[in-house]
Amino acid sequence: MLCERISKITPSYTVGITTKVKALKREGIEVINLGVGEPDFPTPENVKEAAIKAIHENKTKYDNPAGVLELRQAIADKLKADNQLDYSADQIVVSSGAKHSITNTLMAILNPQDEVIIPIPYWVSYPEMVKLVGGVPVPVETKKENHFKITPEEFSAAITPRTKIIFITNPSNPTGAMYTRKELEALVAVAVEKGIYILADEIYEKINFGHEFVSIASISKEAYENTITVNGLSKSASMTGWRIGYTATNLELAKAMTSIQGHLVSHPSTISQWAALAALESTEEETASMLKTYWQRRDRLLELFSEIPEVSVIEPQGAFYFFIDISSFRDRFPQEESLSLRVCDDLLEKHRVAYVPGIAFGNDDFMRMSYATDMATIEAGIQALKDYINSF
Ligand SMILES: Cc1ncc(COP(=O)(O)O)c(C=O)c1O
Hints:
With 392 residues, the protein is α/β, with parallel strands linked by helices. The protein is 44% helix and 14% strand. It has 14 helices and 13 strands. It starts with a helix and ends with a helix. Residues 37, 97-99, 123, 169, 173, 201, 203, 232, 234, 240, 245 line the site of pyridoxal-5'-phosphate.
C-alpha cells in the first residue's frame, strides 16, 4: 500500500508526452518534438573540461552539504554583479537542480496544510511539489489581458491565515511573460504586509529579449528578507543533465535547507559543482549566442503565428516557449472533457507533432510549444498545426 500523499500526485503530462514520442520513435515513426523544455545546445566546452579536470584532481569526495565553497562564493558574486544583491556564501545553498532548490524551500517553510499561492498558468511541477511535502497548492486565476501575470488584487484575494508562500516565475514558463519593476513592487508590498514569502523562480533570467530583468529580492530591504531567490545553470549554460540549481535566502532558511539536503542527498555531485563554477566564470559568450538564436526563433514564430488566425499567442519576452490560445477550437469538441488534451493527442497521433496540453499548466484553453529546437523543426511543427486546422 502506498501512502496517501502519493495518491494526490498527478502524473506529469510532460513526461506522458515524452513517453508517447519515444514509443512512436521506437516504432520508426518520426515525430516533430515541440515539447522539450531544455536548450538544444551542447554544454559549453570549458564546462565539460572543468568536470574532467575535477575528476582527475580527485575532487570526487563528500564536501560541504550546502555546496562547494568556491561555487557558493561565485554564485554570491554573480548575484552581486548581475542583480545588485548582497549575499554571503553562507546564504547560498547549491542543490541538484532548481527543482531540488524549490523542494528544499518548501520543506523548510511549510507545516502540514499550509498554503502556497500558485498563479495560473504555472510550471507543471509546482503544485505537485507542494502536495509532496504536505502543503496545499492554491492555484489562482490570472487574466490573458495581463499576460497572465498575477496582480496585487488577485494575490490579496487568495490569501488566508494559512498562506506561507507565493510563487513568482520570471520570465514565465509557459508564457514567456516578464514582470516589470512596478508590477513586482506592488506584489512585494502585499507579501511584506502579510508576511508571505516570495519564491522567485528566476531560472530563465538569461533568456530575455531585451527587457529589464528585475530580481525580486533587489526591490527593497523588505523584499530581500521575504524572498527566496531560485536560479541555476540548466537553462543559462545548457546544463540540464548536470543538475545544479541554487537558492539565495536569509541565513536562517539557508541553514535549514542545508540541514534538510545534508540528510537527504548530502549535496549535489561535486563534479557537477566544479563544472558549474566554470560555467559561472566564463560562459557569457555561449549564453549570448544561445540568446541570439532563441530571439531569432521567437521573431520568426511571431511571423508564422500571425498567419494563423484560428490561434493567438502572447508575445514572449523571455524563456523559450509560446503559450498558444486554442480556445477557438472548442466548438469542434463540445463533448471533450479536456480540449487541450484532445488537440495535443490529435496533433501527435494524426500529424506527428508534439505540443504540451495547457491543462498541464492549469489552463485548458491553451497549449505550449517549446522553441528550444532548430528552425526546420519549428517550421515543420507550425505547418503540422496548419494542416490540422485545415483538416477541420
Ligand atoms: C520554471 C522552471 N523552474 C524550474 C525548472 C527546473 O530546472 P532544473 O533543471 O534546474 O531543475 C524548470 C525546468 O524546466 C522550469 O521551467
